[in-house]
Structures are given as structure tokens and as C-alpha cells.
Design goal:
single chain, 385 residues, alpha/beta, Rossmann fold, Dihydrodipicolinate Reductase, domain 2, 9-stranded mixed beta sheet, 6-stranded parallel beta sheet, globular
């Protein structure tokens, strides 16, 4: 039985702790928690009353572990973003498995250091990318990887259903601050979308982004983003998101050589070219004499099953890998990819230029890391002033 501590029992941490408290995860139990207050403490009262160790800080928990006063096999990190790296590295040094909530950190160097500590320890490292469990995205990924419709030509995702009122940003002292949160919609809401983007389509090679700070809310970080991307095979894409559009939409379009996929409101529509034209699109484009024909495509629609318990699947996959019975839904090393994407978007917007996205392991990411951190620190210093 894997003994797991939840570090940071706020909105998400309390959810993970309750799942474990309820005995919903085979092979893993709740063994300790940190920073639990108010309503969250009440939700976990059954475990606390039975003697569940409660610590004020992650440091206090690790001190008890290192003094032999606490026995653990794993930690689940659900703290503010800046703390993820420090907690994960200390956990790995103590021989613990780690499940980290998104994002891995604020800047990609933090994610890299987490990976290096995980590799050195040989322990399990996983990420909470729960949207990877959704059947509709798994189907889209399978289609993209199968190449049944050829290579990707265009990617467009408008995800503006992250609407937040002003009070959301006032509800926590660390929300929407460069020095505590590290960013806005890209770092808080969109790590899931950016993870799915690279998981399905692979990493773009360059990006030009426009991040508007305090556009809809009285905050110092971005709440409206428009980004243009390019892939190695010349495919292009746009990514648009905000927390100030209502009613918002979540519409994903992928154009391949022989079909278009449209994902919206839990439904997947596929428009194929060949059934209508009788030939592949490239051949039709070269040979057709009909200058103005509009190709409608032959459309089919499906509504994949919904995943009612994505977080349970994340925790069960983590438990299974810790117990040597399976694999996590998302390896922790995947966390750096979406973080590099958001870092590149910020850097592009701040410097008003297109930014090349470095290949992981190329060595170029070290210069990228330094440049991003330098620019972020300028904003932290300016905001504090």
C-alpha cells in the first residue's frame, strides 16, 4: 500500500485528499496533509479525527519524514506554482514518488530540475494532466498519430470558456501576481490545453504571441492571449484564450491533408475530402478545371463517452505505476513541454517578436530558460515597485 501525502490542501489538493480518504484508489492511502484550513479541514475531518498527520508546511512534513517520525512513499503536490520544483526535488531526494499538479512550475528550468531529480532517484514522476483521460481527446490523438488523413496542415483552438469574474482574482493572495502566481490564463487555466496541443500535434517550432495584461480584469498578468504557431512540416496554427469572454467557446479544429476534424461541445465531427472528390486533395488541386467549386466534405459525427472520474484515473494510474502494476496517465517529463510553450508565448509577447521553441535536450533550452527568467524577473520587480 502506497502511503501518500497531499501537500497543499486547497481547492484541488482537497479533492485529491478526499478521493484517497474515500478509499477510491486501489493500492494507495492518505498518509498526511499540509496547509488545510476552514471548509477543507471539515471535508477531511473523518481522517483528521482518526489521527491523520497534519503539517503547517511542506518543510515541516519533510522534517518529520527525515527525522523518522513519518512514513511515506509518495507526495501529491497541489501548492502555488513556484513551490512545485522545491517540493518535488526534496521528495525525490528522500526516495519518494511524485505526482505534481499542473504546471510543473513557472519557468521551464524548474521542470528540468524536477526531471533531473526524478531520473537520479529512479522514482515515479507523474503530472495531473486529467484532460488526457477524456475519450474525445484520446480519439483525436489516435487519428493524428495514425496518419490516416495525412499530415497536419492547420491547427486552430479557441478556448474562451475559462471565464472568471473579478472576485476570483481577489479570492487568494497569490492569484494573478507575477511574484506569486507567475502568470495568468496561460499558467493557471491553459496548461491543460497546451499539453493537449503538443500531445496531439507535437511541439511547434516557433510562436508569435500577443498577451494582453489586465485587459478584462484589474490584474497585472495576462487575461487575453492570441498566439500564432508553426510546425516543422510547415503546418500552422492559432491558439486563442481568455478569462473575460462570455459566453465563451471551446472549439478545436484540426485540418489534415485529407480531412478536417472539429471538436466542440463534446462532439467530434470529421469532414473527409476523398468521398466527395473521388481522389486525394493534392491530386484534385493539381488536375481540377472547376475554378470555383466549393468542397463541402463528407461529414460524420460522433459523441464519445464522457469521463466522469478523470482525477480518479490520474491517481489510480500513479498508484499503479508506484506499485509496478501499470503506467501513469502522464509522465512528469511531459510537464516541461507545455511550460516551454507558455514561456515562449510570454517571451514573444514581451519582446514583440517570433520566438523559436527549443528542442528539449538540444542545449539551446538553457539560453531560452535564462532569457525567459530574466524577462519575468523584470516584471516581478516592476510589480513589487
Amino acid at each position: 500500500m502506497i502511503r501518500a501525502a497531499v501537500i497543499g490542501v486547497g481547492n484541488m489538493g482537497s479533492r485529491y485528499a478526499r478521493i484517497l480518504q474515500d478509499g477510491a484508489i486501489e493500492g494507495m492511502e492518505l498518509a498526511a496533509i499540509t496547509r488545510v484550513r476552514g471548509e477543507y479541514r471539515e471535508l477531511l475531518k473523518p481522517s483528521i479525527d482518526e489521527g491523520l498527520p497534519v503539517f503547517e508546511t511542506a518543510d515541516a512534513l519533510f522534517d518529520a519524514l527525515e527525522d523518522g517520525k513519518l512514513k511515506l512513499d509518495a507526495v501529491i503536490i497541489a501548492t502555488p506554482h513556484f513551490a512545485h520544483e522545491e517540493i518535488a526535488v526534496r521528495a525525490f531526494k528522500n526516495g519518494l514518488n511524485v505526482l505534481s499538479d499542473k504546471p510543473s512550475g513557472v519557468y521551464s528550468r524548474q521542470a528540468r530540475l524536477m526531471e533531473e531529480a526524478a531520473d537520479k532517484s529512479g522514482k515515479v514522476f507523474s503530472m495531473v494532466f486529467n484532460q488526457r483521460t477524456l475519450p474525445i481527446y484520446r480519439q483525436i490523438k489516435e487519428i493524428a498519430e495514425s496518419k490516416r488523413y495525412g499530415a497536419l496542415k492547420r491547427f486552430n483552438w479557441v478556448v474562451t470558456d475559462w471565464y472568471r469574474p473579478e472576485e476570483y482574482y481577489k479570492s487568494s493572495s497569490w492569484h494573478a501576481r507575477w511574484d506569486k502566481d507567475g502568470g495568468g490564463v496561460l499558467l493557471n487555466q491553459c496548461p491543460h490545453n497546451l499539453d493537449l496541443l503538443q500531445w496531439i500535434c507535437g511541439m511547434p517550432v516557433r510562436v508569435q504571441a500577443f498577451c494582453k495584461e489586465g485587459h478584462f480584469h484589474d490584474i497585472e498578468v495576462e487575461d487575453d492571449v492570441t498566439a500564432y504557431m508553426e510546425w516543422e512540416n510547415s503546418a500552422t496554427g492559432t491558439f486563442i484564450t481568455s478569462t473575460g469572454d462570455a459566453p465563451g467557446v471551446n472549439r478545436l479544429e484540426l485540418s489534415f491533408e485529407e480531412a478536417m476534424l472539429v471538436c466542440e461541445k463534446g462532439k467530434l465531427r470529421i469532414g473527409e475530402i476523398e468521398p466527395e472528390t473521388g481522389m486525394r486533395e493534392a491530386e484534385y488541386r493539381r488536375t481540377s478545371k472547376d475554378f470555383f467549386r466549393h468542397i463541402d466534405g463528407t461529414w460524420t459525427e460522433s459523441e464519445p463517452e464522457k469521463e466522469d472520474k478523470p482525477y480518479e484515473k490520474i491517481l489510480q494510474g500513479f498508484a499503479d505505476e508506484c506499485n509496478g502494476k501499470g503506467k501513469s496517465v502522464a509522465d512528469g517529463r511531459e510537464g516541461r513541454k507545455s511550460l516551454i510553450l507558455s514561456n515562449a508565448m510570454y517571451l514573444s509577447s514581451w519582446e514583440k517578436r517570433m520566438v523559436d521553441i527549443p528542442d528539449i535536450g538540444s542545449g539551446k533550452e538553457l539560453l531560452f530558460e535564462e532569457e525567459f527568467e530574466r524577462e519575468l524577473n523584470k516584471r516581478i520587480a516592476s510589480a513589487k515597485g
